[in-house]
């Protein structure tokens, strides 16, 4: 095509996709059937990971649960069986260890089969100012929150692309979209996780693997204990999120092939503003929303897998 025709195509398709997106705001999206899928959730021993497993339990999937906490993962397995899951497999796995991720992934493929829905959920937070954070904790944050995604994708994506079927889910954070005072290493790890997930999504589109879907989840602070002590200056605008609500919205996003999920909905507005307002106005907005002071009373758990 020449420049004129390609530009015309861009305009026409852009108008079409915008109309399509607007219509979908008012029409409930059809949920896909995941019966028989093999769903792997990292960090499934507690928090959002456990809640997502519980919500997948009655949907006829095979659940593969990973966590570094043996008691936690056993409890999750017990709970999901109570909620109707009949095929549950759990494995101890330190997602910060590449060799262990590959070893356990190979075990899963031998014992369960090829994972078709991969949910990278395991994460940690130090909650310390950059200069106060030990190097070891900074490295661990990057290893769990970012690099683990590389290794799980390497392990499970080949089967998805071979079948042109699957779903990659990255549980990131709103802190991966906007820098937050006191969360330098955490923000860096989540920015990287989002960039990685977006890039792989583009690769899948470019290679025609449109049967492998992707979902990137960016919630505000969730009330799971991970961010205990963090405060929201304006709770009605940016509330601490209820874990049950977040887990429910994530499952809905997966079942409807939603590419991005930002929570609460005000985050969509905030991200739109970030890209168009002057930097100084952005700083004012950060002060107004509490992004500069929300971590002052942090006392959450250092580790959350």
UniProtKB/TrEMBL annotation:
Secreted among the record's keywords? no
What PROSITE patterns does the record point to?
A: ADH_SHORT (PS00061)
Q: Which UniProt keywords apply?
A: NAD, Oxidoreductase
Q: Name one Pfam family in it.
A: adh_short
Coiled coil, from the record: none
Q: Which InterPro entries match?
A: NAD(P)-bd_dom_sf, Sc_DH/Rdtase_CS, SDR_fam
Superkingdom of source: Eukaryota
GO MF annotations in UniProt: oxidoreductase activity
**Protein family (similarity comment):** Belongs to the short-chain dehydrogenases/reductases (SDR) family.
Q: What is this protein called?
A: Epidermal retinol dehydrogenase 2
